């Protein structure tokens, strides 16, 4: 669907985006993540044609990106909101849908369908200036998706939403992806990316730190730590494991030298001790990011 190849963008002497490349498959949810100021928004603005790269290429469905040709297939919800405060909500949604090329009948049908999906029907005649931040966020989402874009770009889409409305929006994102929409989800919230995205690119200070599937990245940076649970309390660990943490009914450990987890399981079976749970501990993306940018101000900020 989308290929970004060696993109660079400079602001005076600052490298906002420094030689970043990645590929996004059609129908996938791709996470672009990193701290504030990492270069995410600049990347998105180049992908949508708002900014031009100083060098590098963007391919959309195998063709060199042409804003005049391809922009209609995109929907971009920026972090900065662009709603007309004095307009009524329904009126504004229809106006923006018409700007996307929909005729009046189709625009009203699509907008009302989305208002119904997001529990917004009673807002139709409210003014934008009367909306909370979360309500404004939902309106912005509707205006982004009403024309059925093939590529949907969401920059911090859950900002200002309470948990209930965040889940409603999340369900719609999953539904759109299932129906074939390709989605770029940009955020600094690592836990959201772990829950939502198929693949990610992690950026920091304008550079790509790592990319790939969430599953593969976690496997790549795992530390071979495990957690074991017992039916009873105060079970002592054997001397061939290194214990990192203990809790009431078990402990977190790593095997010493050439030991195996099967060796541990056999040890407790031979002693007639029942194990109620056993799992490998994989690092979270936040932990991996801190490890990759260790000893930087960004890493210290994420550790707080």
General description of the model:
This protein has 304 residues and is of the alpha/beta class. The chain is built from eleven helices and 14 strands. The chain has helices at residues 40-47, 67-70, 89-99, 104-117, 133-145, 163-178, 190-196, 214-220, 261-270, 285-292, 297-303; strands at 2-11, 14-24, 29-33, 55-60, 63-64, 74-77, 151-155, 182-187, 199-204, 207-213, 225-230, 241-247, 250-255, 275-281. The protein has a six-stranded mixed sheet with strand order 6-7-8-3-9-10, sandwiched between helices. It has a four-stranded antiparallel sheet with strand order 2-1-4-5, with helices on one face. The chain has a four-stranded antiparallel sheet with strand order 12-13-11-14, with helices on one face. Strand 1 (2-11) and strand 2 (14-24) form a beta hairpin. Helix 3 packs parallel to helix 5 (133-145). Mean pLDDT is 87; it is low at 298-304.
Can I get a quick summary?
The chain has 304 residues and is α/β, with parallel strands linked by helices.
